Amino acid sequence: MSSAYTRPLARLIERLQRLPGIGPKSAQRLALHLIKQPDQEIAALAQALLEAKQQVGQCRICYHLSATPICDICANPDRDDHTICVVSDSRDVIAIEKTGAYRGKYHVLGGVISPMDGIGPEQLTIHALVQRVGTNSIKEVILALSPTIEGETTILYLGRLLQPLTCVTRIAAGVPVGGDLEYADELTLAKALEGRREL
Fold first, then answer.
1. 3-state class (DSSP) for residue 82
2. Does domain 7-55 sit in CATH 1.10.8.420?
3. Contact 141, 133 (CB under 8 A)
4. Residue 187's Cα: distance from chain center in Å?
5. What's the mean pLDDT in 27-31?
6. What are the φ/ψ torsions at residue 82 (nearest 5 degrees)?
7. Are the beta carbons of 157 and 170 closer than 8 angstroms?
8. pLDDT at 57
9. How far is CA 79 from CA 86, 106, 136, in A?
10. In what order do the strands lie in the sheet with 104-108?
11. Which residue in 18, 69, 168, 169 is a FRET match for 39, CA 20 to 30 A apart?
12. Which carries the bigger pLDDT value, residue 197 or residue 43?
């Protein structure tokens, strides 16, 4: 860290840089903004961080982030109880909810199978998912995992486990809306062709 920063400011910048998506310049900008704020604003931010850390846990049904034992989505009687969308983490739930296109329930795996990172099925909430599908009248499980090697491995593994129990589908992968075909990679184009449907 440059000696241009006084030690407390350098420590703050260093801490902010540890956050995902925050590089050195963003950390510096945030730190300089924060130290100009009134003490009560900083105290409110610190309090919000502590409360979120202490009060937010996981829903005991779907493992989505929740401040209550059962999250708002699982507790909502207007949601379709017969469909489960499987995602790798809570950010995916938030992204899908923003679309307004899905009205079922979720199951958050807590990651994807990645032997290189030491993550196997036992480190994820796969056992709970299989139990949930086996004991409830689930008509469809939608696998909404990223089309990475780890995501594909997880999809294949879950497909073998769940297909004897219910209908298993996966979200389509392909060319994004507004994207040009010439800039799409071969795998994306192949997935787009595989996921084609009748007009």
1. strand
2. yes
3. yes
4. 23
5. 95
6. -100, 0
7. no
8. 96
9. 15, 10, 15
10. 104-108, 80-87, 140-143, 167-170
11. 18
12. 43
Q: Amino acid identity, residue 22?
A: I
Each domain of the chain, given as residue ranges in start order, spans 7-55, 65-194
Distance between CA 88 and CA 51 in Å, rounded? 25
SS3 state of residue 60: coil
- Taking CA atoms, 183 is separated from 172, 173, 175, 179, 187, in Å, by 19, 15, 10, 8, 12
For the domain bounded by 65-194, which CATH number is listed? 3.40.1360.10
The amino acid that residue 123 corresponds to is Q
> Given this chain, do its domains 7-55 and 65-194 carry the same CATH topology?
no
Rounded alpha-carbon distances, angstroms, from residue 26 to 9, 18, 32, 38, 198? 14, 11, 10, 21, 46
Q: What's this model's pTM, rounded to 2 decimal places?
A: 0.82
User: Tokens 């036992």 label which residue?
Assistant: 122
**CA atoms within a 13 Å half-sphere pointing along the CA-CB vector of 184:** 17
- For 59-102, the pLDDT digits (tens) are 999 999 999 999 999 999 999 999 999 999 999 999 999 989 99
Q: Are 168 and 162 in contact (CB under 8 A)?
A: yes
- Cα 93-123-167 angle, rounded to 5 deg: 55
Helix axes 7-17, 24-35, angle to 10 degrees: 130
